[in-house]
Write a structure and sequence with these properties.
By secondary structure, this protein is of the alpha/beta class. It is 24% helix and 26% strand. Strand 6 and strand 7 (121-126) form a beta hairpin. The structure holds flavin-adenine dinucleotide.
Length: 314
């Protein structure tokens, strides 16, 4: 069995998901990386540091890379192999196309992968994380898409990997779509997905601007990032880039402070693995309290100004 990790180059570096998956997979033996991007010594060094022994690099230039990547991967990945992907849009695009080419399913939203029995057992969570399902793959190759932060990315001090250039396959019209423009959303403060403290605001904040301001202020005072529920994003109070949950970002900070958040399953799956969860909600029956380490039953517009004033006075 060979293990493959798909890696898209983002901002000249390997994707975070690839480093997480390498950390998980290196215990099983040698790991091959299928790398999409221009590549650099620094990027390859990071992959080697996390356990890659060989990097197969495909540079699709300004073309959308998924079709070509899937065609090239299909030639490399064997029947008995495992191919691991993150949840980035290119990752999922390639995983789906590879699945179609190889005639095998994709096991998606994995939170754990166990190969110790000789069989590939993939765990995922359903019903908003309340039930874990273990699926045994009976035929290969086994294609797995893992959730962000399912595994911590930890360097192991490995040497630089061997790098093999992969020729761009001819996939006809399917490979002709090009990336014309990239839009980078400007944001202040720490990166939401990497922040040690996240202050998540919900519909209970009551509105945008001055009603939302206690969330931004608390995050600023604590050096944390602002997150939000989908209800808030759908209402247009904050941009989608702040959404935490099933259809937003997955966060795993040391502290998550949920303010006026009910605790719908779709929100919980994006933040329930935070080390400490603090909730402020006026409804003592709000589901968010069932996963909170500390709960404050009260009006956010009374509790948060007092909390912010106390922090400011320190
Ligand atoms: C397919 C699908 C995907 C979804 N993906 C996501 C996702 O990625 N992320 C996500 O968040 N949601 C997602 N949702 C939506 C989700 O189901 C909930 O609707 C949403 O999370 C609710 O947001 P909320 O907690 O802000 O609002 P509400 O559920 O309306 O809760 C507001 C809370 O604020 C409290 N409150 C009200 N006023 C105050 C006050 N003055 N002081 C204190 N507390 C107060 C209330 O008691 C209540 O508990 C998804 C839904 C579907 C169907």
């Amino acid at each position: 069995m060979s293990t493959w990790v798909f890696c898209e180059e983002l901002d000249s570096a390997p994707s975070a998901s690839a480093l997480e998956l390498l950390t998980k997979a290196r215990a099983w033996g040698d790991v091959e990386v299928f790398y999409v991007g221009a590549g650099s010594d620094a990027a390859y060094a990071a992959l080697g540091d996390h356990g890659a022994v060989r990097v197969h690099q495909l540079d699709a230039g300004d073309k959308l890379p998924a079709t070509a990547a899937a065609a090239a991967m299909a030639d490399l990945v064997g029947e008995g192999d495992v191919a691991l992907f993150g949840m980035g849009s290119t990752d999922r695009d390639v995983a789906g196309r590879l699945s179609a080419r190889k005639g095998c399913p994709v096991l998606s939203s994995a939170v754990d992968i166990d190969t110790s029995s000789g069989q590939v057992l993939v765990t995922n969570e359903i019903l908003g994380g309340t039930t874990r399902v273990v699926t045994a793959a009976t035929a290969g190759p086994v294609i797995v898409v893992a959730r962000p932060k399912a595994f911590p990315a930890e360097p192991a001090g490995g040497p630089a990997p061997e790098v093999v250039a992969v020729a761009l396959p001819d996939v006809g019209h399917a490979g002709s779509a090009a990336v014309l423009e990239r839009h980078v959303e400007e944001s202040e403060g720490p990166d939401l997905e990497a922040a040690a403290i996240v202050v998540g605001g919900g519909r209970g904040m009551g509105g945008p601007e001055e009603k939302w301001e206690p969330v931004a202020k608390l995050a600023g005072l604590l050096g944390g990032a602002v997150g939000a529920t989908r209800a808030v994003v759908d209402a247009g109070w904050v941009p989608y880039s702040l959404q935490v949950g099933q259809t937003g970002k997955t966060v795993k900070p040391d502290v998550y402070i949920a303010c006026g958040v009910s605790g719908a399953m779709q929100h919980l799956v994006g933040m329930k693995d935070s080390s400490t969860i603090i909730a402020i909600n006026k409804d003592p029956e709000a589901p968010i309290f069932t996963i909170s380490d500390l709960g404050i039953v009260g009006d956010v517009h009374k509790v948060m100004p007092a909390l912010n004033a106390a922090l400011e006075s320190r």
